[in-house]
Amino acid sequence: MKIAILSRNKKLYSTSRLVETCRERGHDVKVFDTLKCYMDIATSAPGINYQGEDVGYYDAVIPRIGASITVYGLSVLRQFEMTGSFPLNESVAIGRSRDKLRSFQLLSRKGVGLPVTSFAHSVQNTKHLIELVGGAPLIVKLLSGTHGRGIVLAETKKAAEGVIDAFRELKADFLIQEFIKEAGGADIRCFVIGDKVVAAMKRQAKEGEFRSNLHRGGTAVLVKLNPAERAIAVRAAQVVGLNVAGVDIVRSKHGPLVLEVNSSPGLEGIEKATGKDVASMIVTFIEKNAKKNKTRTRGKG
Length: 301
Known about the structure:
By secondary structure, the protein is of the alpha+beta class.
């Protein structure tokens, strides 16, 4: 099987693990720097070029598209889909996951548990927004933030108003969410492949920090999920349309709540915390499901 990986850096842990696993299983794998791909958008024979040559047909494509290049990266992935390649995660689904507001709306419509969330454009609505999520303390979260960046804990109403007004002045788009105090600065990353949670780790924020991201100095350990937590993680990935996802949930007094659905979850943290070979599970999924022109969301927004 010919497998393409879209990644800016072949030396990254996740990319190198996938390359290694593909080769071990006898596949012809190549890493393409997403930004160096360019497209021939023709009616009869859409193509992709790389370093002056036509890429040709690949049976499957694994997108490792960074948030900073989402727009161009999805364009490249769509072109692979047009040639008939099987995408591990489809362009439409990745686009949904990268738009935090849209993904929350989709999850809410399907009844998936979420922290109380509010969103508005007008600064005149600041006080009411705060009331909608139950008042301070609360979380202010930039729609474009990643790895815990762009997330602020406002511990008082006055602090919340100040942060919101500052983001407004910067013309930044953001959500306001209730703060789940009982979580104690911890969340759970559920790694979903297909219809199963194949690995899960509990991430704990360092002392004095509320963000549990490993990039922010958090620690991770193996965790056992209950049936409700497994179900909500799989459901969240399916609603967004992702075959592979990192679903972040938090344990609250109301049960598990989804914080985010990540379409390009890293492998290093989850493999080291759980001891599981997640890369092999991803390649196995491709081997079982890759078929030409198999794109469920083709033509859908």
